[in-house]
């Protein structure tokens, strides 16, 4: 705990302080604040006044859980919520949960498998009604071994490995294949692919879909331009600059997520004759600046995941289900530039 948090905790009034100020026992103070019977009206008033004076508030969630009630909270563990993709997913989840009287709480795993494990344990200890996970870990067999404590799981974007659970994913291979075919039909052959972490299932799907289109077209000229494990905007910008310095340079670039597309756009902004560009994932202002993208509805992904969770909360006990979110190429100009 940080020094600031420690100081805050030290200043937080306690029930013991309320009892002392009201001149009653700790048990009487607790009974009065919980509106239990057999507490004299005058005593109850003194206890409430003391609580107000000190600024003491009951922990309503903890009290209800002690009484055997269930939480109204649903947990989401995802990547960085500053990424528009994850924030859109969270928005879809929250909208669906709200209709069922449930509330969303979120945490970031920072693509760290150990942290993800810790966060799952923390949410389960707090008795969330369901847990939605965008996994960073490669395997989740520990959930089957340790048990989920009766809490339903739904995985998003990346399927779990080692445990059966509902999952909502994007048609990664199909979207990347469509992007590759879009460029091939416009005469491109030297097509660069800039991909994120190749160990992640969505990225592997996008790489494989792209490769399938190239093999089907009998094109091998793209192979020197494949770059993987490019994980952030800065590295994507640097990678695209390096690609453009090759001789011959690629005539088109395909980036496999919105962060990498942003980096590519920075690299291309002052280029006198930029290559064609298609990015996987739509993003704000892509339509304004004319960036062709492989689009999918992240809000729908979130809503579908929340719907599956709500059904499990309601008692659905069938086998694990899988939902695939469709993709489409939206042509806005950057992906339609002819090869030079």
UniProtKB/TrEMBL annotation:
Q: Which CDD domains match?
A: HTH_LacI, PBP1_LacI_sugar_binding-like
Q: Name one GO molecular function term.
A: transcription cis-regulatory region binding
Keyword set includes Transcription regulation: yes
Q: Which UniProt keywords apply?
A: DNA-binding, Transcription, Transcription regulation
What SUPFAM superfamilies does the record tag this protein with?
lambda repressor-like DNA-binding domains, Periplasmic binding protein-like I
Task: Note the InterPro entries from the entry.
Answer: HTH_LacI, Lambda_DNA-bd_dom_sf, Peripla_BP/Lac1_sug-bd_dom, Peripla_BP_I
Recorded hits in Pfam families, A to Z, give: LacI, Peripla_BP_1
Task: Tell me where in this chain the HTH lacI-type domain is found.
Answer: 13-67
Q: What is this protein called?
A: LacI family transcriptional regulator
């Amino acid at each position: 705990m940080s020094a600031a948090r420690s100081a805050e905790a030290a200043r937080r009034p306690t029930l013991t302080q309320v009892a002392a100020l009201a001149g009653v026992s700790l048990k009487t103070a607790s009974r009065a604040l919980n509106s239990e019977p057999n507490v004299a009206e005058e005593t109850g008033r003194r206890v409430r006044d003391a609580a107000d004076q000190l600024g003491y508030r009951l922990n309503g969630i903890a009290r209800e859980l002690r009484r055997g009630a269930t939480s109204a909270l649903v947990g989401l563990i995802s990547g960085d919520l500053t990424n528009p993709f994850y924030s859109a997913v969270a928005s879809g989840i929250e909208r669906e949960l709200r209709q069922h009287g449930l509330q969303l709480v979120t945490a970031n795993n920072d693509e760290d498998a150990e942290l993800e494990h810790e966060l799952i344990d923390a949410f389960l200890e707090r008795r969330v009604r369901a847990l939605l996970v965008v996994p960073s870990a490669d395997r989740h067999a520990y959930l089957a071994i340790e048990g989920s404590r009766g809490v339903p799981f739904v995985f998003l974007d990346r399927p779990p490995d080692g445990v059966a659970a509902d999952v909502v994913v994007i048609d990664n291979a199909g979207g990347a294949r469509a992007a590759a075919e879009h460029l091939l039909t416009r005469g491109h052959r030297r097509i660069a692919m800039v991909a994120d972490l190749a160990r992640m299932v969505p990225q592997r799907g996008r790489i494989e879909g792209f490769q399938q289109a190239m093999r089907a077209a009998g094109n091998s000229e793209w192979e020197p331009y494949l770059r993987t494990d490019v994980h952030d905007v800065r590295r994507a910008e640097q990678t695209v600059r390096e690609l453009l310095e090759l001789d011959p340079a690629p005539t088109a670039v395909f980036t496999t997520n919105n962060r990498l597309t942003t980096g590519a756009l920075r690299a291309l902004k002052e280029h006198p004759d930029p290559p064609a560009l298609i990015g996987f994932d739509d993003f704000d202002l892509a339509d304004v600046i004319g960036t062709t993208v492989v689009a999918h509805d992240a809000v729908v992904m979130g809503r579908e995941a929340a719907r599956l969770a709500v059904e499990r909360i309601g008692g659905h006990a069938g086998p694990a289900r899988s939902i695939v979110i469709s993709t489409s190429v939206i042509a806005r100009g950057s992906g339609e530039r002819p090869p030079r």
